[in-house]
Amino acid sequence: MLRKMLFALLACAVTFSSALTQRDVETAKGLLRQVAGPINSNQFLQFAGRMLQLWFHDIDTFGAVANGGPNGCVNAQSGANAAVLGVISSINQIHRQMRGVISKADLYVLGASVVIMDSIPKGSPVGMDLLGNFMTGRPDKAVCDLQNVLPNPTGAISTVQQAVSQRLGLTKAETVALMGAHTLGGAHTSISGFTGPFDDTPAVFDNVYYTSYLTKQWIKRQGQSGVFWAANDNSGTIRFNVDMALAIDTARCRTNQGCPLQPQGTMDWIKLYASDAAQWHQNFASAFQKVSANGIRGLVPVTQLRA
To answer: PANTHER family under this entry (predicted)?
Structure first.
């Protein structure tokens, strides 16, 4: 019994330190930006997309495995995580540089917050402040789960409902808003089996992901990894079937034009976010903060840390 208790404690080992200060968080942000590289550079594009993927792969285990959620522990043996191993290595290095004063779990959330806020176009309406509202205190899990619980990219609207809305505890508005994270980066063969950006501005966190639903013709394609949707132009942009299922009844059509809308009403939120980026930001921030705190107690706002 004692051995089991000790193992349980180790599995949820905490690397968060009460000595963490606002200055430490600023240092971590600076180190993350050094790794990310100049905004609008190819280096930033690659890092930003993979940083968001790593963050999601970490938080998406909540409700699917024991002690899942934002715990800084992603299974490196899973092929679905192959593309984010470089980012994991960078985070581990930052964690060592900072002598473990901030947990890897916090660095995953902070890294995602940095690339999102830094890639919002200058002059555009901003309806969120993920860095100013950053919460810290997530413990690292010592033993990672081997199970891959990522949503199936070829799935239907039910996949989104089960893997995002229900399991992560999001409203319909928050679910559609969180899917907009696909605006940054793109699909990678090693993760999903597909490749290509999700909109025409993959290095920018903007609402083009949503406007593209309305302005582009999308054609259903059959790839080696299953069904996906490709823009009927020369942009090379794609959509997972789970993304397109937010807008239309994908099982009944081969193009989005003239296709029956998704009866779940998610298309209404797509239209709203396409016309109102600030509202999207507001609902995205709500979803981001909620899933980044699932299963964690005692998170501390960065504003309450010692300077």
So the answer is: L-ASCORBATE PEROXIDASE 3 (PTHR31356:SF36), THYLAKOID LUMENAL 29 KDA PROTEIN, CHLOROPLASTIC-RELATED (PTHR31356)
